[in-house]
Design brief:
Blueprint lengths: L26 H7 L38 H11 L12 E10 L19 E9 L14 E9 L2 E8 L12 H8 L15 H8 L5 H7 L14 E2 L4 E4 L5 E10 L8 H10 L3 H11 L5 E10 L25 E10 L4 H6 L12 E2 L4 H17 L81 H8 L3 H16 L4 H14 L1 H11 L51 E5 L6 H13 L3 E6 L3 E4 L5 E4 L1 E2 L10 E4 L3 H9 L1 H12 L4 E4 L3 H5 L16 E3 L2 E4 L3 H12 L15
Parallel strand pairs: 11-12, 11-16, 12-15, 16-17, 17-19
Antiparallel strand pairs: 1-2, 1-9, 2-3, 3-4, 5-7, 6-7, 6-10, 7-8, 8-9, 13-14, 18-19
The structure holds CIS-heme D hydroxychlorin gamma-spirolactone.
Cofactor: heme
Catalytic activity: 2 H2O2 = O2 + 2 H2O
GO biological process, one term: hydrogen peroxide catabolic process
Length: 737
């Protein structure tokens, strides 16, 4: 990798320029490289450059005496350590980042003048951070939660941040309620319980009093809140934004990210298990995929709505609790995001990156969505505390790829050495530099929206239909997805101690779907409130008549795009498959399966009763990747049981192997076994749930494969894994979870 020198204009030359990490080259990686340090092969020194002779002992009065205050080397080291931590993000504290590139397929100049959406030849460097919302930095990746999906585009016109989530709507309509929402979901203030969980009284108290959250809460209680991987979830800009073309014409737009691997989830029982076995599951998955070259890919999707259509729909485009159904406005896939490089340093990049949906470029603009407008304030404000002052934009991961010239100066940790006498405008002493930029030459001009209004604390009546899209979402789900939603509400409300809160929530659910509410009530052992008015949920605080929910029968019965059952299921790339083995395993059939799965891009691991080398039936030596002690079914997408008489006898008697299969069955995963491994399957609890004539069949039942291992068998296994899960297996309560 050549060491491309950064442009001197970036003001970074001569910075800590030791070794440059190998990385794909673009303007951003080159800029970052200039700030990268690598101590390999180097000598140790202090922060002032003094060579260190002894890093093991502090300076003492005698070898058993007190340490001397004089020891500036000790003081420097301890002082730095004492101040290593910064406040975690008040929300989205737990996250993982990756670098990548974005490229538009065809010019979108007819709707936007944004350069990165105009030139199909341009590769725009990006940095992405995925996150959970409620948990602390050290919490589990698998919490039931919304996921953040924040993308920064480093463009020559400045940074554009698309700070979205993996759900297309939000809990509240106005930013003034955001602190309340977050206070309610975070651990309760008296005892700081529970961590990274919404299943507690304060959250549901708030939600049950906030009917506008009905739509979002359906998403949060669906499997969307339990992604299989950051690489397998959709992203949404949530708000309606504006695109502006070179003629100044505006169109409304909703931004989407569509993962090429499809949108997939894990089961709730599985999520809880993963949280114990590998709380870094999503972080590790993203890291490993990128390290192995299986680069995560997403297509950018746009729903473009002509400005004339602003009032065409039965919902308000400015209401962030509503989505625009894809049946009404199709999503056009306009470009591709590829994540191709892991960060060099978590703190420097993933932790210090400061996203802000106010970071826009000419060609993109805001709307008056009141949630969006409040966000425009919050993101810069929060960095002042989090990153310690107004110079956070100079941190390498936050710098734009073009040099910054303006009259902002000084402050804590200022890096740039601004030359010259003038730091004001207009000036005559410095040629009036830096100069403003004319609109025709790329200067940013806000969209000239006509506003004629009174100042009022009000909300338009068009925001008060809280239930029709919640119902649309529920009606669009497959049966298993609906069952999961019922289970999720029953679990969460079951953890709520205050019965009145549970009941009030049942009132909300009844307004979305009576059947849903009845099933949840049954699980909780409660009766549905007999009198349900659209407003009972808000009456507790005596909301004035003007603010009451209205019941609207949505015109769309169902939207296929809302169900994950309809996602693409044509690849097993980067899926993890466990092969259960032991001494005496049949090496040939293992090779057939392993080779086929790896050729399709899957990751295969051999799991054995113990680590180290094993001897196959044909006396070949092979190595186990993990033992049953460190591996677990919940960390894999599918499982195959090897043949070979001795191996089969060992696995049948190995409780961990049988447990592995039982769990894979319970979580509806594909299971395959060599025809001679039948006795291992017979040791599981699910063998008596298989059809009576299963021994004759190759496909024992949906998602269970047995038989002679040949290429046809391997093909079938691949197809099963691509299906992801056989959720039908759960019915009716076949699977304990
Ligand atoms: Fe926010 C972080 C997404 C509403 C205030 N938000 C944050 C992150 C994401 C979102 C992905 C993490 C960025 C990162 O990885 O560093 N937020 C959203 C979405 C919202 C939303 C999709 C609704 C559509 N947020 C929202 C509101 C407010 C905030 C209404 C305040 C009025 N959000 C913040 C924040 C955070 C943040 C306090 C915490 C850390 C940070 O900004 O940098 O400013």
């Amino acid at each position: 990798m050549s060491k491309k020198k950064p442009s001197p204009k970036l003001g970074t030359e001569g910075a800590i320029d030791k070794k440059l990490a190998p990385q794909p080259e673009n303007d951003k990686t080159t800029q970052l490289a200039a700030h990268t340090a690598d101590g390999a092969g180097e000598k140790m020194n202090t922060n002032t450059g003094l060579p260190i002779n002894d890093d093991q002992n502090s300076l003492k009065a005698g070898d058993r005496g007190p340490t001397l205050l004089e020891d500036f080397i000790l003081r420097e080291k301890i002082t730095h350590f004492d101040h290593e931590r910064i406040p975690e993000r008040v929300v989205h504290a737990r996250g993982s980042g990756a670098h990548g590139v974005f490229q538009v397929y065809e010019s979108l100049a007819d709707v936007t003048k944004a350069g990165f959406l105009n030139d199909p030849k341009r590769e725009t460097p990006v940095f992405v951070r995925f996150s959970t919302v409620a948990g602390s930095r050290g919490s589990s990746d698998l919490a039931r939660d919304v996921r953040g999906f924040a993308v920064r585009f480093y463009t020559p016109e400045g940074n554009f941040d698309l700070v979205g989530n993996n759900m297309p709507v939000f809990f509240i309509q106005d930013a003034i309620k955001f602190p309340d929402l977050i206070h309610a979901v975070k651990p309760e203030p008296d005892n700081e319980i529970p961590q990274a969980a919404s299943a507690h009284d304060t959250f549901w108290d708030f939600i049950s009093l906030m009917p506008e959250s009905a739509h979002m809460i359906m998403w949060a209680m669906s499997d969307r809140a339990l992604p299989r991987s950051y690489r397998m979830m959709e992203g949404f800009g949530v708000h309606t934004f504006r695109l502006i073309n070179a003629e100044g014409k505006s169109s409304f737009v909703k931004f989407h990210w569509k993962p090429l691997l499809g949108t997939h989830a894990v089961a709730w029982d599985e999520a809880q298990n993963i949280s114990g076995k590998d709380p870094d599951f999503h972080r590790r998955d993203l890291w490993d995929a990128i390290e192995s070259g299986a680069f995560p890919e997403y297509e950018l999707g746009l729903q473009i709505i002509p400005e004339e259509d602003e009032f065409k729909y039965e919902f308000d485009l400015l209401d962030p609790t509503k989505l625009v159904p894809e049946e009404l406005v199709p999503v056009q896939r306009v470009g591709k995001l590829t994540l191709n490089r892991n960060p060099d340093n978590f703190f420097a990049e993933t932790e210090q990156v400061a996203f802000h949906l106010g970071h826009i470029v000419p060609g993109i603009d805001f709307t008056n969505d009141p949630l969006l407008q409040g966000r425009l304030f919050s993101y810069t404000d929060t960095q002042l505390t989090r990153l310690g002052g107004p110079n956070f934009q100079e941190i390498p991961i936050n710098r734009p790829i073009l040099p910054v010239y303006n009259n902002q100066r000084d402050g804590f940790m200022r890096q740039t050495i601004n030359k010259g006498k003038t730091s004001y405008s207009p000036n005559s002493l410095g040629n009036n530099d830096p100069q403003q930029v004319k609109e025709a030459e790329g200067g940013f001009v806000s969209y000239r929206e006509r506003i004629e209004a009174r100042k009022e604390r009000l909300r338009n009546k068009s925001f008060f239909d809280h239930f029709s899209q919640a119902r649309l979402f529920f009606n669009s789900q497959s049966e298993p997805e609906k069952n999961h939603i019922v289970d999720a509400f029953t679990f969460e409300l079951g953890k709520v101690k205050t019965i009145a809160v549970r009941e009030r929530m049942l009132g909300i659910l009844a307004q979305i779907d009576k059947g849903l509410a009845t099933q949840v009530a049954y699980g909780l052992g409660l009766h549905l409130p007999t009198e349900i008015s659209a407003n009972q949920s808000v009456s507790a605080d005596g909301a004035p008549a003007d603010y009451q929910s209205v019941q609207v029968e949505g015109s769309l019965g169902k939207s296929d795009a809302l169900s994950m059952a309809n996602t693409v299921k044509d690849t097993i790339k980067s899926r993890k498959v466990a092969i259960l083995v032991a001494d005496g395993a049949d090496a040939d059939s293992i090779s057939v399966i392993k080779n086929k799965l790896e050729a399709e891009g899957a990751v295969v691991e051999l799991i054995a009763p113990r680590g180290g080398m094993l001897t196959a039936e044909n006396d070949e030596q092979f190595e186990a990747d993990q033992s049953f002690l460190t591996a677990a079914s919940v960390l894999f997408d599918a499982v195959y049981v090897a043949g070979g008489a001795n191996a089969v006898a060992t696995l049948e008697a190995e409780a961990n192997a049988v447990h592995f299969l039982n769990e894979a069955f319970k979580h509806c995963k594909p299971i395959a076994a060599h025809q001679d491994a039948m006795q291992v399957i017979e040791a599981t609890y699910f063998s008596n749930k298989l059809p009576p004539d299963y021994k004759q069949d190759t496909v024992l039942s949906e998602g269970i494969l047995m038989g002679e291992v040949d290429s046809n068998y391997a093909d079938l296994f691949v197809k099963m894994i691509a299906q992801h899960r056989f959720w039908e297996r759960e019915k009716p309560r076949l699977v304990p979870a």
